[in-house]
Amino acid sequence: MAIPELHLAYVDGACSGNPGPMGIGGVIYSPDGRVLFELSDSKGPGTNNQAEYLALIAVLEAARRHGVSAIEIRSDSELLVRQVNGIYKVKHEGIRPLYEQATRLLGLFDDYRVVHIRREQNKEADRLSKAGLEKTAVSGA
Q1: pTM of the full predicted structure?
Q2: Sign of the C-alpha dihedral, residues 82, 80, 78, 75?
Q3: CA–CA separation, 71 vs 52, rounded Å?
Q4: What's the rounded Cα separation, in Å, for the pair 95 and 32?
Q5: What is the Cα–Cα distance from 128 to 25, expressed in whole angstroms?
Q6: Span 21-56, pLDDT tens digits
Protein backbone atom coordinates (compact mmCIF):
# COMPACT_ATOMS: atom_id res chain seq x y z
CA MET A 1 0.00 0.00 0.00
CA ALA A 2 1.36 3.41 -0.98
CA ILE A 3 1.96 6.00 1.70
CA PRO A 4 -0.32 9.01 1.10
CA GLU A 5 1.35 12.29 0.28
CA LEU A 6 1.37 14.71 3.18
CA HIS A 7 -0.47 18.01 2.84
CA LEU A 8 0.56 20.89 5.07
CA ALA A 9 -1.92 23.15 6.85
CA TYR A 10 -1.52 26.21 9.04
CA VAL A 11 -4.34 27.26 11.39
CA ASP A 12 -4.97 30.23 13.66
CA GLY A 13 -7.78 31.78 15.65
CA ALA A 14 -8.17 35.37 16.79
CA CYS A 15 -10.40 36.92 19.40
CA SER A 16 -11.24 40.55 20.09
CA GLY A 17 -11.55 40.69 23.83
CA ASN A 18 -11.39 37.23 25.37
CA PRO A 19 -14.16 36.42 25.34
CA GLY A 20 -15.30 38.39 22.36
CA PRO A 21 -15.94 38.08 18.62
CA MET A 22 -13.77 35.45 16.96
CA GLY A 23 -12.06 35.11 13.60
CA ILE A 24 -10.55 31.96 12.15
CA GLY A 25 -8.03 31.41 9.41
CA GLY A 26 -6.18 28.62 7.73
CA VAL A 27 -4.38 27.55 4.60
CA ILE A 28 -3.78 24.08 3.17
CA TYR A 29 -0.83 23.40 0.85
CA SER A 30 -0.59 20.45 -1.53
CA PRO A 31 2.48 18.20 -1.27
CA ASP A 32 4.12 20.20 -4.08
CA GLY A 33 3.63 23.50 -2.19
CA ARG A 34 0.65 24.95 -4.06
CA VAL A 35 -2.17 26.56 -2.08
CA LEU A 36 -5.03 24.07 -2.14
CA PHE A 37 -7.45 26.03 0.04
CA GLU A 38 -7.61 29.17 2.19
CA LEU A 39 -10.22 30.11 4.72
CA SER A 40 -11.02 33.24 6.63
CA ASP A 41 -14.26 33.50 8.55
CA SER A 42 -15.95 35.29 11.41
CA LYS A 43 -17.48 33.47 14.34
CA GLY A 44 -19.69 34.61 17.19
CA PRO A 45 -18.44 35.39 20.66
CA GLY A 46 -16.03 33.03 22.35
CA THR A 47 -12.51 32.72 23.68
CA ASN A 48 -9.21 32.70 21.86
CA ASN A 49 -8.80 28.97 22.57
CA GLN A 50 -12.23 28.28 21.09
CA ALA A 51 -11.24 30.26 17.99
CA GLU A 52 -8.08 28.12 17.65
CA TYR A 53 -10.17 24.94 17.74
CA LEU A 54 -12.77 26.33 15.31
CA ALA A 55 -9.95 27.13 12.87
CA LEU A 56 -8.58 23.59 13.20
CA ILE A 57 -12.02 22.05 12.65
CA ALA A 58 -12.72 24.24 9.59
CA VAL A 59 -9.37 23.32 8.01
CA LEU A 60 -9.86 19.61 8.70
CA GLU A 61 -13.34 19.72 7.14
CA ALA A 62 -11.97 21.56 4.09
CA ALA A 63 -9.12 19.06 3.76
CA ARG A 64 -11.57 16.16 3.75
CA ARG A 65 -13.75 17.91 1.12
CA HIS A 66 -10.63 18.28 -1.06
CA GLY A 67 -9.73 14.60 -0.78
CA VAL A 68 -6.74 15.03 1.52
CA SER A 69 -5.85 11.77 3.27
CA ALA A 70 -2.62 12.74 5.07
CA ILE A 71 -2.05 16.10 6.75
CA GLU A 72 0.34 17.93 9.02
CA ILE A 73 -1.37 20.68 10.98
CA ARG A 74 0.82 23.53 12.21
CA SER A 75 -0.46 25.84 14.94
CA ASP A 76 1.06 28.46 17.20
CA SER A 77 -1.39 27.47 19.97
CA GLU A 78 0.65 25.35 22.33
CA LEU A 79 -2.50 24.50 24.31
CA LEU A 80 -4.35 23.17 21.25
CA VAL A 81 -1.37 21.14 20.05
CA ARG A 82 -0.72 19.61 23.47
CA GLN A 83 -4.39 18.80 24.04
CA VAL A 84 -4.89 17.22 20.61
CA ASN A 85 -1.70 15.18 21.07
CA GLY A 86 -2.87 13.93 24.49
CA ILE A 87 -0.17 15.73 26.50
CA TYR A 88 -2.67 18.02 28.29
CA LYS A 89 -6.13 17.03 29.45
CA VAL A 90 -9.09 19.07 28.28
CA LYS A 91 -10.63 20.51 31.43
CA HIS A 92 -12.59 23.50 30.10
CA GLU A 93 -16.20 22.55 29.30
CA GLY A 94 -16.34 25.15 26.49
CA ILE A 95 -13.41 23.45 24.76
CA ARG A 96 -14.35 19.79 25.30
CA PRO A 97 -16.93 19.48 22.45
CA LEU A 98 -14.55 21.27 20.05
CA TYR A 99 -11.70 18.98 21.09
CA GLU A 100 -13.92 15.92 20.55
CA GLN A 101 -14.99 17.14 17.10
CA ALA A 102 -11.38 17.91 16.10
CA THR A 103 -10.04 14.54 17.24
CA ARG A 104 -12.92 12.72 15.50
CA LEU A 105 -12.05 14.55 12.26
CA LEU A 106 -8.34 13.80 12.65
CA GLY A 107 -9.22 10.12 12.97
CA LEU A 108 -10.68 10.20 9.44
CA PHE A 109 -7.22 10.78 7.92
CA ASP A 110 -4.91 7.93 6.97
CA ASP A 111 -2.05 9.86 8.55
CA TYR A 112 -1.87 13.08 10.50
CA ARG A 113 0.30 15.03 12.87
CA VAL A 114 -0.31 18.23 14.78
CA VAL A 115 2.79 20.28 15.56
CA HIS A 116 3.51 23.51 17.40
CA ILE A 117 5.26 26.33 15.58
CA ARG A 118 6.30 29.81 16.64
CA ARG A 119 3.90 32.66 15.90
CA GLU A 120 6.26 34.18 13.34
CA GLN A 121 6.06 30.92 11.34
CA ASN A 122 2.27 31.21 11.18
CA LYS A 123 1.90 34.59 9.48
CA GLU A 124 -0.49 33.56 6.69
CA ALA A 125 -3.01 31.84 9.00
CA ASP A 126 -2.67 34.75 11.43
CA ARG A 127 -3.47 37.22 8.64
CA LEU A 128 -6.48 35.15 7.59
CA SER A 129 -7.82 34.87 11.16
CA LYS A 130 -7.50 38.63 11.64
CA ALA A 131 -9.32 39.17 8.32
CA GLY A 132 -12.07 36.92 9.69
CA LEU A 133 -12.19 39.07 12.80
CA GLU A 134 -12.54 42.15 10.58
CA LYS A 135 -15.55 40.51 8.90
CA THR A 136 -17.10 40.25 12.37
CA ALA A 137 -16.55 43.96 12.98
CA VAL A 138 -18.00 44.92 9.59
CA SER A 139 -21.06 42.68 9.90
CA GLY A 140 -21.67 43.68 13.51
CA ALA A 141 -21.85 40.02 14.58
Answers
A1: 0.94
A2: positive
A3: 17
A4: 34
A5: 4
A6: 999 999 999 999 999 999 999 999 999 999 999 999
